[in-house]
Amino acid sequence: MRGIVVGINETDEAREALDWALAEATSRGTTLTAVSAGGDDPSQGRTVWAEQLVGEAKRRVGAACPTSVVAVAGSAREALLEAAEGSEQLVLGRRRLSKLGRLVLGSVSAEVVERASVPVTVVRHAGDAAVPAVTAAATSDGTALLPRDVVASGPRVVVGVDSSLASVLAVRHAAEVARRTGSTLQVVYAWQTSGLAPLPGTWAGIPSGEDYERHARELLDRAVEAAGIDLPAGRLERTVVNAAPAAALVDASATAGRVVVGSRGLGGFGRLLLGSVSRQVLDYAACPVTVVR
């Protein structure tokens, strides 16, 4: 199945995800399949309800893409994974602000993000209050997260990179989104001195912060070159920041239309989907987050 797949249910966050997915499918010139799952029997009533929901959303956002509905019984998790197989992208909603002050990625969505073989975009509910940024206290040395002078206002696509193939794929995906939407692409490499091995050709303990930053810029440039980015002049920004990877991305998300990350890597942003870093980005980002395979 090609096109875009979106999970729907009766929640507001699912409706937000549906709206976003319809706009994305229209922008890409592709189809949208809405998947509704649950219960023991996929009754005709569920199908009718899903078709009505999609029809209302198409009118609301002015979507012109072809749509279809899949209503199935059983596990929403398995239904979404099966429907997404071979698609261009899977879209999920993110739960609303919890009592603890964070947006929560539900257990179904979390497992789908982990297991899906295609890019997955998690959409933040537009009706929620601004999400608090991960603060500088989350970094190893208390440094500022991302200087505001490098986060210009206006639409942008932010992508986190490290030295892995996964991040190169993420940059390619983000560049395609930026090209299609007319956005600026901001490529971010976050580095920390804490826990880093000595740089090649140096003695342990000798490299300075400037040395690590220079090395980080070299790695960022390699990722950009390997991705083969083709964007007009002035629409590619390269940012190196001394901060925790999740903190850097969450802070950058405040002025972004989308954040893109790779699913696996060699450290830094490569830790996404391996523990707390992924949860911080997916739970706290102020815009949709796309995880790329």
TrEMBL record:
The record lists the organism as: Xylanimonas protaetiae
SUPFAM superfamilies to which the protein is assigned, alphabetical: Adenine nucleotide alpha hydrolases-like
Name the chain's protein.
Answer: Universal stress protein
UspA domain span: 2-124, 156-293
Write down the Pfam families for this protein, in alphabetical order.
Answer: Usp
The family line of this record is: Belongs to the universal stress protein A family.
Q: Where are the transmembrane segments?
A: none
